[in-house]
Specification:
Length: about 180
């Protein structure tokens, strides 16, 4: 994946048409700054990571590689994107300078404590950026349990079939950034 496929700004929606900021096209040849919060769509959820420079992203692998929870790993941007569009989520604004965000992300490499509701990729990214482990997706899932259940079924089906694919989100119209 070329870095030019990254669109700067707040990720606002769930599908390709609405996810990019209004009136913006993905810039060509623009590399995100180290410490940027990257987001990409997956089957029923958004996947989060921290750009650390040199075409690398640190993220919580979760269930991306198997049915067993993964660890915090540093991967190429192309592997993180898995063939999907990637956005920079500018909110919340980081409380740490970019070099500290990168240091915090790398400080947890090989951590193997993934928990879907309390320690997932979004919790990890929020902790790196703001020092608080939180997930807007989990909050939304808990507020809308029926939609969360449908999303979990889609995710399990995708995992069972192998490669998760981008499909409908858990909560259509839910905004990643306010």
């Amino acid at each position: 994946m070329a870095l030019g496929q990254i669109a700067a700004g707040k990720a606002r929606g769930w599908n390709d048409a609405s996810a990019a900021p209004a009136g913006t096209e993905p810039p060509t040849g623009v590399e995100p700054v180290p410490g940027a919060h990257l987001v990409t769509l997956r089957c029923g959820y958004c996947h989060h990571g921290i750009y650390v420079g040199g075409g690398k992203v640190v993220h919580y692998a979760g269930y991306l590689h198997s049915r067993h929870p993964g660890l915090v790993e540093e991967v190429d941007l192309a592997e993180f994107a898995a063939g999907r569009q990637v956005w920079i989520d500018a909110s919340p604004a980081p409380v740490y300078p970019s070099h500290e965000v990168v240091r915090r992300a790398r400080s947890r490499l090989n951590e193997h404590r993934y928990r879907l509701l309390t320690n997932n990729c979004e919790h990890f990214s929020a902790w790196c950026l703001c020092g608080e482990s939180r997930s807007k997706q989990v909050q939304a899932w808990l507020a809308h349990p029926r939609s969360a259940l449908l999303g979990a079924v889609r995710l399990c089906k995708a995992l069972h079939q192998g490669e998760p694919s981008a499909s409908r989100p858990v909560l259509p119209g839910w905004q990643l950034s306010p």
